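does this look right to u?? farnesyl diphosphate version
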Amino acid sequence: MFKAFFKKKNTIESFEDLNIPNHIAIIMDGNGRWAKKRNMPRNVGHKAGVEKVKTISKACSKFGVKYLTLYAFSTENWNRPDQEVNGLMDLLVFFLKNELTEMHESNVRIMTIGDLSRLPEKPRKTMENAIKTTENNDGLYLIIALNYGGRAEIKEAIKHIAQDVKDDKIKVDAIDDSLIENYLYTKNIPDPDLMIRTSGEFRLSNYLLWQLAYSEFYFTDVYWPDFGEHALLEAIKVYSSRQRRFGGV
Ligand code: FPP
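got this back:
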């Protein structure tokens, strides 16, 4: 009986005992190095990364995570060679087209944060269609950060708030945390409880600078294309063992 108990603890089913984060944000890093290790072009790494987007979305639905935010393309990623940028855009379209039906049937709601206006027409339209198709779903909220930058987000919020003050729509004294949050891309989305970055890098890279203020951070050496359900569960176990104090005692 004891043996059976311990066996259960080591299986993927044991997640029911864990404190499951309501919102996980991920920096999916290491696609390029994963490909390089195999003497393959970087876009092969990104393609393998898309497979893990599917795996991790399904695992989050299964574990009861409500929000999953993925850093798919940053405001700085435009500096990569055209071929890689175009490859990433094609992969986004491929993912949204191929997975939309299944995600919709699984009650996934697709959302985005970032400045979509600068995206080429095809990925932008495909994303808008995915958002519209799934807008009434209320299972996993899959938030894809596209042309996203934390500083750009805060800068835009400041401009809008300043304009609204100038137009007498709000008073300076009314500017508090919750007002600012209403001007961010993440309006109505709760802050992440857990931020995961793969591939052994310890940086935020302009990701969710406001929203990650009190989140737990988890870093792993695993490259994103190798990050599967077990690796996610490991991160959740570590999260589950931490005590969050939000600045209190
Ligand atoms: C970082 O790896 C990864 C990215 C910049 C892009 C992530 C994109 C995907 C996983 C595919 C598209 C996403 C969706 C949601 C369909 P890197 O290239 O910086 O890796 P490296 O640091 O090893 O070079």
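Residues 82-105 form the longest helix (24 residues). idk if thats expected tbh
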